[in-house]
Amino acid sequence: MGGSLSTERWRYRIDRARIKERERQVKIYNLLTQDMILLDIEADSRDDVLMEMVGFLKKRERITKGKDLFEKLIKREELGSTAIGEGVAIPHCKLKSVKNPIVLLAVSRRGVDFYALDGKPSHLFFLVVSSPDNPSLNLQILAAIAHLVRKAKPLLDRVLKAQSVGMILETVRDEEDKINE
Fold first, then answer.
1. Residue of 107, 80, 89, 116 whose CA lies nearest to 164
2. Which residues of the chain have pLDDT under 70?
3. Residue 1 has what pLDDT?
4. Do residues 128 and 92 make contact, with C-beta atoms less than 8 angstroms apart?
């Protein structure tokens, strides 16, 4: 038995590995800031939603080339809708002028037809803009959002009921913490 590990030591190592994996996971609430939440968007069509989000980023000086971003988002939507169903869409693209990933959450209480496969209107729009130099990070962010939406069933209702940007951010943090426990 000289080189073998006891069952308890194996469990300890497995638990430590799981903890390290959770620490490496991208957390949406670490990327989403209060100034990147757009409460009550006015848009009533897919293109208008994208235009409103692009304008929001431009106004906050997070991007310089609004037209380029809008065109890339439209091209991505033409490949297939980024609405994942259950009231959520994740429009995304890569933009050379972006060094650090941008995550914007826009909320539509009315809902907008974003051509989701389930036919339901989208209410939450997680816009992700990242650098083409780091495709791995882009995929991790998209996966983290999809995981959050899929596992945190109360997320949509809680965000739609939230009355402030702070409450929305707190909801995202709370729901993400619950699913990562």
1. 107
2. 1-5, 10-24
3. 46
4. yes
Structure tokens at 170: 């707190």
Give the pLDDT of residue 6: 72
> What are 141-153's pLDDT values in tens digits?
999 999 999 999 9
Instruction: Give the pLDDT of residue 23.
Output: 45
Long-range CB contact pairs, 55-60, < 8 A, 24+: 56/104, 56/106, 57/102, 57/104, 57/127, 57/129, 60/35, 60/36
Q: For residue 158, which amino acid is it?
A: R
Domain segments of the chain as ranges: 27-179
Phi-psi label, residue 113: left if phi above 0, alpha if psi -120 to 50, beta otherwise? beta
For residue 175, which of 122, 91, 105 has the smallest C-alpha distance? 105
Q: How far is the C-alpha of 3 from the C-alpha of 10, rounded, in Å?
A: 13
Residues 8 and 79: their CA atoms lie apart, in Å, by 50
Instruction: Note the pLDDT of residue 115.
Output: 95
Among 41, 49, 82, 92, the active-site one is 92
Structure confidence at residue 8 (pLDDT): 74
Give me the CATH code for the 27-179 domain, please: 3.40.930.10
Residue 147 annotated in active site = no
Q: Is 86 left (phi over 0), alpha (psi -120 to 50) or beta?
A: left
pLDDT of residue 62: 95
